[in-house]
Amino acid sequence: MAQPSLTKRSSFSILTQPPVGMPRSSGPASASAIPSSASVSGSGLLASAMSNSSSGGSRQTTASATPRRGAYFESHWPLYAVDWSTSAFQRGPGRIAVATCTEDSNNRIQILQPTPVAETQANGQQIPSLELNKTAESAVVYPCTRVRWDPFAGRAMGGNIERLATAGDFLRIWEYNPETMTLRQSSLLANKTKSDYTAPLTSLDWNATDNSLVITSSIDTTCTIWDLNTSTAKTQLIAHDKEVFDARFTTGSADVFASVGADGSVRVFDLRSLEHSTIIYEPVNPPPLLRISTNSRDPNMLATFSIDSNVVHVLDIRSPGTPVIELDAHMGNINAVEWAPKQRNAIATCSDDCQVLVWDVSSNRPDIAFAYTENAEVNNLTWSANGEWIGAIAGRGLQAVRMGYK
Fold first, then answer.
1. Domain formed by 38-405, architecture
2. Which residues does UniProt call coiled coil (predicted)?
3. What is this structure's pTM?
4. Of the residues 74, 100, 214, 375, which has the maximum number of CB atoms within 10 A of its CB?
5. Domain parsing of the chain, residue ranges
């Protein structure tokens, strides 16, 4: 089946305010995140917030019924880390892992199972949606800075066991059994040093070519490549002059990765030649760069953003020094950026302005193909494996937003 492609839009409307009557809070909403009449329309990507669903029985909304948000999960705690499994070996819509972010020691990792359903709107129209049900959870002391599914989930363990990794105080590997709906920690990885102190991990990435490799970044200026076959650190290197905030492998490679940090630079490393690294972006007096995303279809394309900024810089490794594109439509600080899993030129961003924007960057004049507004600041996002859904984290909730194609 041919993959959907983004189409340039002749016009669009950015939704910059929450729907009427919906305050910006972390609590549950009493109505859909976007009324169906406010969905972005036109050529290219379309969107619906999957509104007006009920948790059981008939899904037809009546005048006396209290509308509930469809394709929505609410935790008892604020959420931050999130990942939608993208393994080619999984069946159906995959699984979603979320992790809480609280200042006390009562944090959780939760596994959600999306189930396709058909929602009936008030006008009688049926639209595809999801039910998000929690199937397992496990306690952790410290909040997770990042969670990632094994890219070979469903095959890697030789059975139904699926692995995921979390970063925070340590690198932890977890095993989820979908038959028993149980989640257990299988290993804890930490570099042994002369000190009892272990520097916190700021992020991780799981190599999509060789799933025995995981990279972590740390505030101690290092990146570490872990070999899961031996549960040891394969390589550790000083990657930046200050804290490293994120590191990602480039697509199709088990050796090349990019990182960003508090020194404001984007650096690219090759494990086959660690004597040298390439600084592809380092402006004068740069602010810290918080996150980086590598393109799943093009190993040369990266995206990053700095602290307290509403601009995303799109970089080409082949043209170091200056961004090839800058995305600047957000009205608040950027919190996350992720390239689409199936389209080379699609990239999603989220911000304190309560918006998720999906951009078409097929030319040097990027176009917004989709805009979605939440009722609170959107702190993180994730794509489903086929690119049909985006999961947006706001407050205690995860909202799955469907993207249709014409």
1. 7 Propeller (2.130)
2. none
3. 0.83
4. 375
5. 38-405
